[in-house]
Amino acid sequence: MTSFSSEYVKETLSTVLISVFEAACARHDISPDSDDGVDLLIVLTHAFQKGTTTEERLLAFVMDLLRK
After folding, report:
1. DSSP-based three-state secondary structure for 68
2. pLDDT over 80 (residue 15)
3. What is the predicted pLDDT for the residue at 39?
4. What ranges do the domains of the chain cover?
5. Is 18 in contact with 55 (CB distance < 8 Å)?
6. Strand segments (E) across 1-68
7. pLDDT, tens digit, for every residue of 30-56?
8. Measured between alpha carbons, how far is residue 55 from residues 16, 20, 22, 34, 47 in Å?
9. Which has more confidence, 40 or 68?
10. Residue 13, number of CB atoms within 10 A of its CB
């Protein structure tokens, strides 16, 4: 059985990832449903799974990535 705290953590982390994705799409005029949006979400999810889990670090990662 999953505890309340682990469910809360999962929900909070998912919220951070979605928030960063939406912010990055808005800042760079990327449609979330486009191929570029899907690619961005894949890269963000990978970075998130590898330990970049704060909103600030994820945003910095995306901003650096999209500048190149």
Report:
1. coil
2. yes
3. 94
4. 4-67
5. no
6. none
7. 999 999 999 999 999 999 989 998 999
8. 6, 6, 12, 23, 12
9. 40
10. 13
The predicted pLDDT at position 67 comes to: 85
Identify the residue whose tokens are 């949006």: 37
In the block, tokens 């800042």 appear at: 27
CA 61/CA 38 separation, integer angstroms:
16
Fill in the DSSP letter of residue 64.
Answer: H
CA 24 to chain CA centroid, nearest Å: 9
Can you tell me whether residue 65 is helix, strand or coil? helix
Question: Rounded CA gap, 42 and 37, in Å?
Answer: 9
- Integer Cα distance of 21 and 40 in angstroms: 8
For CA atoms 24, 44, 31, 66, the dihedral sign is positive
